[in-house]
Amino acid sequence: MIVEPKNQSFVSMTVREALRDGMAEEMQRDKTVFLMGEEVAEYNGAYKISQGLLDMFGAKRVVDTPITEHGFAGLGVGAAFGGLRPIVEFMTFNFSMQAIDQIINSAAKTLYMSGGQMGCPIVFRGPNGAASRVGAQHSHCYASWYAHCPGLKVISPYSAGDAKALLKAAIRDPNPVIFLENELLYGHSFDDVSSDPEHVLPIGKALIRREGKDVTLVAFSLMVGKALEAAEQLAEQGIDAEVIDLRTLRPLDIETIVQSVKKTNRVVSIEESWPFAGIGSEIAAIMMEHAFDYLDAPVVRVTGADVPMPYAANLEHLALPQVDAIVEAAKAVCYRGD
Amino acid sequence: MAYPISPEKALEAYGDMFLIRRFEERAAQLYGMGLIAGFCHLYIGQEAVVVGVQSILKPQDSLITAYRDHGHMLAAGMDPKGVMAELTGRSGGYSRGKGGSMHMFSREKNFFGGHGIVGAQVPIGTGLAFAHKYNEDEGVCITSMGDGAANQGQVYESYNMAALWKLPVVYVIENNGYSMGTSIARSAAGPNFFGRGQGWDIPGEKVDGMQLLKVQEAAKRAVEHARSGKGPYILEMDTYRYRGHSMSDPAKYRSKEEVEDVKQNRDPIDHFRAYMITTLKVSEAQIKTIEDKVKAVVAEAVEFSKTSPEPDPSELYTDILKEGSATL
Is residue A200 less than 8 Å (CB to CB) from chain B? Predict the structure, then answer.
């Protein structure tokens, strides 16, 4: 059941606070929900997402783990099989590669392999993608990796309100959910956070963050902000861009993208991960399948560079999608070269 | 003097071991006939391990293992018909034909699989133990693995967390001497798997896994330890598998003489049969009654596994996600 009460008030808070409140409310609501991960309890979270939760819920439900991702991810899966609802925090999703066998082979596939008997209600969450100057092994976006896999749901919110309401949906969901946050967004404030503990958003619904008629910009997480900036610049140049915040990557809200493209006839996808077999590749394929006759230009992908993330400031800047590149791509599909 | 097992309980345990032996022999036949395909890992030779451990468990206890799992399922009380029909990939199987030999589960019997990735069941079993403790249900999770899996890194990550948090888990290492085709001497630096929890003060012992009573006795100690809140326990079961690693393995890495020697001198079923007759004074007729009953059960399972229909094509796209979420 989606419960979206009327007359609710929205307040301003950071993504960090919204995520914490979302977890706290769900832990209050359901005694089987617990949080585990590196530094989540006594340290109050490596990025302070779990600030105060140990004091509120005690060590039984806020569990500091050793730095052994493979082991504790698998332990979380077992706890979920055993009737609990674990939230497993990865200090960054880069470290989830240590645990990816448990996430895919154990969490995602077991419902199918058991003919529907098992089910694994678990949330794997943490920061994903590039932060700032942390090099190749700590800057990787895993959106397309996890979105590839049946049996998983994959969420990657932008705003604080979405972060809270979608995290609550993820915790209540009876399936394994990958919840991709972004470190650079943690400190951003948004005024869209519901204070109603029953405000839960549906998984699988994109949001049109800016309406426009000339070109559709499709993005998620941090890149939504870049797309909105690009849209402002495009407006100054007479191009009216529509910005879609995907919010969920699996299941993808194909309908919202297709309806937008029927109006704008042009698509630019933006993601910070590598281009090959990325989310943008999927958007392009979906446009071929669902909106081919509506396209007035080929789909263009703005992505991270196809290289391991460099450390040097200038190279890192070059490796990540910037507003200028989005503006250029939008102009290109509108055939508005300089 | 009191014997460690009553004649009635002994006959029950014998029947359970005989069921696994008979079931696996028939599975091998069906494999030969092409009715079972893919990977199929038989438990023949190791029957005393799982029957001995299972016989001392309480209803709230849970069990998890890897892919040599048919014996565990039968010992846990799962219906042989459902297990065999899963092997043949039919809709009457425990996973409705979608899991196969390595992937079967029964929530009703607290059997949590059936896992195909070597060692992956060990953190999961540790998590089941975490849930037992969290829910305060006084349950213990029996987490089985082979000697091959015992070299996996995630096993030691699990030992660490289980000891740190005093989780009610008993790790049963079924040491059959070979991780697929590689003998212990060639795969493990240090043959004492039971001692590998020492760094965390996890007690461990080596048990003759071919002798049911020895298994029972050790399992009682281990499970009581875990149930009383003292944390994990390791049991290394010295056992042997008669068949290859899977049906496609001719097992040329060991001599016929080695296999014959175990069959002649250590067979868990023959050994226990002789014990029942000479010590417990159980009659041949009583044993035959049990054996006949088991043969009929297995024959029925085989028949069911042949006649149960294949899954409906619509099953291809079911059970991918569970419904009833906040989003529906």
Answer: yes
